[in-house]
Structure formats: structure tokens, C-alpha cells
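pasting AGR3 protein for the record, 150 residues
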Amino acid sequence: IMLHSTLALSLLLIAVSSNLAMAIKKEKRAPQTLSRGTIYLLYVPLMVIHHLEDCQYCQALKKAFAENEEIQEMAQNNFIMLNLMHETTDKNLSPDGQYVPRIMFVDPSLTVRADITGRYSNRLYTYEPQDIPFLIENMKKALRLIQTEL
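structre below
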């Protein structure tokens, strides 16, 4: 219940205010009303990136993320991106601990996808710069799951 209320409020605010959120059609901007934002969220996965400014691993991943054209295209056109620079006390957003960088995929039911994880068993949601191809595959997996589960 805590996850639903916290994430629902966050997601609605993001849908309304985010310049990164793009509609399914590339030319169309995200809806600007709260009610339309809710409908929009039903079809777009959320990618939550936990990072800190003074973290060298976060900065290295951010650089690799920014330099990859395929990731940038998917991030701009197919996802709502949420960058969290402060650690949350919500256990739903840190199911296996509080570490950075951490990238989690959240589906339209506001559930963190435990089936979309990185390569490391001790930090399920972390990615390193060399894991960019794996992250791309996970982004594609998130998109496929959204399409097949709706």
C-alpha cells in the first residue's frame, strides 16, 4: 500500500511536469492534465535511476548512458525517466539494499519488476558502464512486458 501511494503520487507529478516524458508518438508531447497523465502511465514503463552526484560509479554509468544513442532514443521515446539523487527510506524502492547506482523498472501497476535485474546477485539493480548492452536488453524487455501484459 505504501508503494502504491508513494509511487502513484510521484508518477502523477512526473507525468504532468516532466519534460522527458514523451508520448508514444514521437511528435506528440506528454499530456499536461492530471487525468490524461494517469491514462498515459498505463502504457509507458517507468525507469527509476538512483544515483549520487559524488559517486564515481554513478558518474561513469551516467556518461556511458548519455553516450549511447540507442539508450537515449528509448529513454526519450518509450520511458518515463525518474532520476533520484537522494536515497529513499521506502523499502519498495530499495528491495535489496540502498546502493548506487541502481536502476529499477516499474510497470503501470506501480510494481517494481523483480524479473528485470542486472548481472550481480549481491546488487540486483546495479549496472556498470560495461553493462550498457545488458541494460539495453532490459529496457527492451520492459517494453515487451508492458505490451504483452496490458
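Residues 1-6, 11-37 have pLDDT under 50 and may be disordered.
The first helix runs from residue 2 to 17.
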